[in-house]
Amino acid sequence: MQKILFDSHTHINNEDFDDESRAQLISEIEDSAVAYAVDIGFDIASSQLAVQHAQTYDWCYAAVGVHPHDAEDMTDDDLMTLKELLKQPKVVALGEIGLDYFRDISPRDIQQKRFVQQLNVAYEAGVPVTIHDRDSHGDMMEILKSSGAFSEARIKTFASRPGEFSKDAGILLHCYSGSAEQARQYIKLGATLSIAGPVTYKNNHKTAAVVREIPLEYLLIETDAPYLTPEPYRGKPNKSPYAEYTARKIAEIKGISYEEVAAQTLANAKRYFRID
Ligand SMILES: [Zn+2]
Fold it and tell me: Pairing mode, if any, of strands 171-173 and 129-134?
């Protein structure tokens, strides 16, 4: 099996797995076209588990952070723990962090407070971030701008990228669900966008338009497994090997080959997460 896909956002650390089902998943990933995957933390325990996975599997990298759903339970000590975890080998990003106004599990003011605090940890450490933004597009853009996400100091931290929008701010909007117009604003500012399974859904014209309009250089591919399963497996649990279907859909929309999408998004992700 040719290893050609980079799954930039997955949850091998998902708490619903027992040892056996996780081992099964890992062997499926190892037998698939997936060359790399980033296991993304959503609270402290899952962040620690992601770091453990990154230390165990060559192809696995970790991101550490507290999700907006868990913002209310987050403590100031957790910020210190995240700073320590960021120093571990193969921890490539802070995330996933952000805002979720769709489910509103934590109060919005607390979500915002913990999001900004974690952004500041990323700015200080000079690491890329992975951002969750659900139904909070307006506040998200405002907070990113006012916190310095696209400041000169931040941009200077990262090597420039190819193409017209060469500024890299180390800001990744995961499972990008905004408009094409906002997507254009984001990449001009230096952000990167990650496309997930929903792009394969028949009526998702909005994300298809984003893929059509944004150059491939600024897109990554992800599964967000076990969530957001692409067609033709929608309704079943997602897994990293299904990143293939998202890549195939992007290829179809852009009128290029699946192999080109896989190769370019893999290169983009390696650059974004600074993996040699
Ligand atoms: Zn996620």
Answer: parallel
Query: From ligand 1's centre to the CA of 9, what distance in Å?
Result: 6
C-alpha 227 to ligand 1 mean position (Å): 8
CA of 224 to the centre of ligand 1 (A): 5
Q: Is 16 helix (H, G, I), strand (E, B) or coil?
A: coil
The pTM score is: 0.97
Please name which of 275, 168, 176 lies closest in space to residue 222, comparing C-alpha atoms.
Answer: 176
> Taking the chain (276 residues) in consecutive chunks of 10 residues, what is each chunk's mean pLDDT?
96 96 97 98 98 98 97 97 98 98 96 98 98 96 98 97 96 97 98 98 97 98 98 97 98 98 98 96
**Cα(177) to centroid(ligand 1), Å:** 13
The Å distance, Cα 12 to ligand 1 centre, comes to 10
For helices 243-254 and 205-213, the axis angle rounded to 10 degrees is 70
Query: 192, 168 in Cβ contact below 8 A?
Result: yes
Q: With respect to CATH, is domain 5-272 assigned 3.20.20.140?
A: yes
Q: How far is the CA of 78 from the centre of ligand 1 (A)?
A: 19
Domain ranges of the chain: 5-272
The dihedrals phi and psi of 275, each to the nearest 5 degrees, come to -105, 130
Task: Determine the Cα–Cα distance for residues 230 and 147; give it in Å rounded to an integer.
Answer: 34
